[in-house]
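Two proteins, back to back. First:
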Amino acid sequence: MKKFLILFALLSPTVLAQNTSSSSNPAASSPLSSVFDQISQQAAGDKPTPAVSNKPVSDKLLSFKPSSKVSADIRNTFINGFIAQGQRNGTLTPALEKQVRDGFGKVDIAAEYQKLLGPKGFDVYNVVTAMTLYVVSAFQILDDLQTTDATDRATYDQFKKAFGQVPAIAKMSDADKQKFAEALMWLTALQANDLEQAKKGTKGYTLENVKESVSSSLKGFKIDPERLKIGERGLQARK
């Protein structure tokens, strides 16, 4: 993981706070992103909580068999985004572009997060794990908090239960689930890097800018951080 973070640090002088709104977010266009909206409305009290499905969604439906090709496609989408942003900023040299492409071209984002989450009992080849990782990490940045293992698990259980109301999950391919999950992992890693650079005082980074970017990313999934927070029950209304 350390080598992975070093690669992100390489980007920092060149690419500031990637735009992760719905227009540029490859995960936001997935049908699975509707679960975020569903849970958000229920947590905010805008929508009644539906009856729990009599048939819980199996881990098999939520999991996927990873494909190296799909992983490469998602990785290249983000790499090209890095490069394009650097070109727009006028700060990308040919040498740096080569470093970025060569370095990130070898990154297996899921494998990196499996090292961190596997020991805690989470399987990264599962869409609910990716959703939990992204949402919890985003609110950790916004609210300057460190969640407990119990809170992380409660959030995971909340998201998993929501899929009982999404029968379309049974028709989704492994590739579709992998694209959604790995895109969320890339967003999480980018936001973690932005926070680290802001704390280090890297030029162009401020905590205010990073939090604004994270908030924009959440709103791209129709999660309003001004109304919601992460609590003991998972995503819930702010009091």
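And the second protein:
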Amino acid sequence: MNKLILGILSIALVALFITGCGNNSVGNAVTDLESSSVVITENQGPVKDINIEAYNWNFNQDDVVVNKGDHVVLHITSKEGTHGIMIPGLGLSTGEFSPGEEKIIEFDADEAGSFDYFCNVPCGSGHKSMRGQLVVEE
């Protein structure tokens, strides 16, 4: 019986290890919703630093445009209210941040397209209008 349990645990650990070492379409992502940054690294191109400020109930810019191959560093802060940003098409999320706190999302723009982003922390009556788009041009 003990050998059976050890065998099942061994198989489960190997499967967990293999799953954790998988690759996604935007590079090797580390997404820690409790930390201050999300980093995706692969091939670093020209660096594009972008500041996004959240406030009730909008962002200071709706569209962010970068070039394919850019190494993008999004510096995200809140002027008022508690917010978060999620970019589902890239599998990225900052987690929650409050006024005066900065979150950083860093990644390589290796796929052209338009990627919606939005506040993923319920922040009041205008929450649903907190949307923008990240455009990666060829």
